[in-house]
Every structure is written in structure tokens, then in C-alpha cells.
Design goal:
Keywords: Ribonucleoprotein, Ribosomal protein. By secondary structure, the protein is mainly α. The chain contains 4 helices and no strands. The radius of gyration is 14 Å and the shape is elongated.
């Protein structure tokens, strides 16, 4: 169940990133207050090629095991 939940959250994050790009391209401003981005640090570490650190941070944020965190980070990595 947790894996499915994590996959759903990751899919939603990808959709939100794509929507942000479309809105930026069309110069549409979102005036709602920004929501906290708990996975921003993980994505940043993945972008910088620091996969092990990203896995560690993901585990700290979510409380999942090593395998689940590794799988999730690899999915984040595949999305870039």
C-alpha cells in the first residue's frame, strides 16, 4: 500500500512540475500561496548526481526502508 501511495505522490509531483512549466510558458501567474515542497531537497540532490544522499534524505522525510527509498529516488531520477 505504501509503495502505491509513494508512486501516486511522485506522479502528482511530475504533473505539477509540467503544469508549472506550461503556466510559465503562457505567462500565467498563480497567486495562491506556495505549498511547502518536502521533496525539493531530494530532487535537487538527484539533479546534482548525489543519489546516495538523496536516498538518505528521502528516508528521513518519509520513514520508508532503504529499498523503498532507493526505488523512489530512481523513479525521481528517471523523471528528469
Amino acid at each position: 500500500m505504501r509503495d502505491r501511495h509513494d508512486l501516486t505522490l511522485q506522479a502528482l509531483a511530475r504533473i505539477e512540475r509540467k503544469l508549472d512549466l506550461v503556466m510559465q510558458h503562457l505567462d500565467i501567474r498563480d497567486y495562491a500561496p506556495p505549498e511547502p515542497d518536502t521533496m525539493g531537497e531530494v530532487r535537487d540532490l538527484v539533479r546534482r548526481g548525489k543519489k546516495i544522499q538523496a536516498i538518505k534524505v528521502y528516508r528521513e522525510l518519509t520513514g520508508v526502508g532503504l529499498k523503498e527509498a532507493k526505488d523512489a529516488v530512481e523513479q525521481i531520477e528517471a523523471g528528469y
